[in-house]
């Protein structure tokens, strides 16, 4: 079984992708715009909704590789501010320097929720909500015997 995050940016997906490319060295592996979708069925399946007029260039589906993980993104229905509540994405950095760089990049334009620092369980751990409201935890795994 594979569980992957799917984030809906309500019209800011392309901006978010560019941010994550810079902040996390992310790579877009698949991108489909609404205008590339086949014409809707008639009648549409129950629960389906057509994208709003003027959203043809918006992102219907994107897959982005961040490290070893694929995160999926979309502009969704472009209905306003995205709502990212009740979860965080966790990034395991290979070392303290990488954690510092990643945390600071994600914090640019965002909000630090817990400053990055040493804890009893990690040489570096911190929490930040990025400029889009996505919550991130950045951690360096403690070496064996760390106290």
TrEMBL record:
**Gene3D superfamilies documented for this protein:** 2,3-Dihydroxybiphenyl 1,2-Dioxygenase, domain 1
Sorted alphabetically, which Pfam families does this protein's record hold?
3-dmu-9_3-mt
PhnB-like domain location is: 4-139
Name of the featured protein? VOC family protein
Organism of derivation: Cupriavidus basilensis
According to the entry, what is the taxonomic lineage of the organism?
A: Bacteria, Pseudomonadati, Pseudomonadota, Betaproteobacteria, Burkholderiales
């Amino acid at each position: 079984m594979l569980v992957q995050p799917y984030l809906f940016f309500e019209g800011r997906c392309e901006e978010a992708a560019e941010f994550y490319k810079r902040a996390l060295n992310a790579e877009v592996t698949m991108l489909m715009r609404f205008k590339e979708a086949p014409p809707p069925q008639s009648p549409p399946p129950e629960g389906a909704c057509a994208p709003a007029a003027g959203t043809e260039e918006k992102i219907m589906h994107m897959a982005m590789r961040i490290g070893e993980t694929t995160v999926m993104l979309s502009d969704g229905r472009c209905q306003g501010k995205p709502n990212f509540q009740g979860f965080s994405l966790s990034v395991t950095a290979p070392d303290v320097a990488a954690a510092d760089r990643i945390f600071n990049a994600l914090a640019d334009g965002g909000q630090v929720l817990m400053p990055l620092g040493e804890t009893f369980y990690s040489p570096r751990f911190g929490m930040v909500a990025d400029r889009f409201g996505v919550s991130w935890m950045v951690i360096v795994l403690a070496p064996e015997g760390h106290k």
